[in-house]
Design a protein that fits this description.
The chain is mostly helical and 186 residues long. It has one domain: Cytochrome c-like domain (Cytochrome Bc1 Complex, Chain D, domain 2, Orthogonal Bundle), CATH 1.10.760. Helices cover 59% and strands 0% of the residues. The protein has nine helices and no strands. Helix 3 packs across helix 7. The longest helix is centred in the C-terminal third of the chain and has 25 residues. The protein is globular. The N and C termini lie far apart (69 Å). The mean pLDDT is 87.
Length: 186
């Protein structure tokens, strides 16, 4: 009974302490926090994802369709090239996944489908299954896999488009908030 009381006292202390910690999205999480979050998310996905492979082949048509859906629904956060450079110019906690790196590419097709379809709770990753059919999700996965194998020409084209998008965004922000771009006359 003393052990149960001690455990409850520790849990209550932790729950009272946690709100006093500074938790902004701009703060880099500690190593223990990151490992715990990665473990919980990874295990949740692995336990619930179907063991399936992408039923669609990476034909030019399927890749183009996947790229179109990716750019419409994913690139805003993950970047046109999957680098995690979001168009919001904002900090995310946890950070936006870099889809073109080895860690993201290690997920199985079924696990990626599960993540895209269901989203990841308490992150910026929404679930897409409610408004997108399976073919669209599988197409996005085809394109995500292709991001790790972009040719130099494809990379250059995406970088050029990303640069143009950034310039368009800056121009739009200047037009919508002209008082912030005008010099002060005090």
């Amino acid at each position: 009974m003393i052990l149960i009381g001690a455990v409850l006292a520790v849990l209550i202390s932790i729950l009272r302490l946690l709100p006093s910690i500074n938790w902004p999205a701009t703060r880099k999480p500690g190593q223990m926090e990151s490992k715990l979050a990665d473990y919980v998310t990874s295990e949740w996905v692995r336990r619930h994802a179907a063991k399936e492979t992408n039923p669609f082949r990476p034909t030019p048509e399927n890749l183009k369709s996947g790229q179109t859906d990716f750019e419409e629904h994913c690139a805003t956060c993950h970047g046109l090239d999957g680098s995690g450079e979001n168009r919001f110019e904002a900090d995310f906690y946890p950070p936006v996944a870099k889809l073109n790196d080895a860690d993201a590419q290690e997920w199985s097709d079924g696990e990626l489908y599960f993540i895209i379809a269901n989203g990841i709770p308490m992150t910026g990753m929404p679930g897409f299954a409610g408004n997108h059919d399976a073919k669209e999700i599988w197409g996005m996965i085809l394109w995500m896999r292709h991001l790790a194998q972009l040719s130099p020409r494809e990379k250059a084209a995406l970088e050029s488009r990303a640069h143009i998008s950034t310039e368009q965004h800056q121009k739009m922000m200047e037009e919508s908030h002209p008082e912030e771009t005008q010099p002060s006359h005090k």
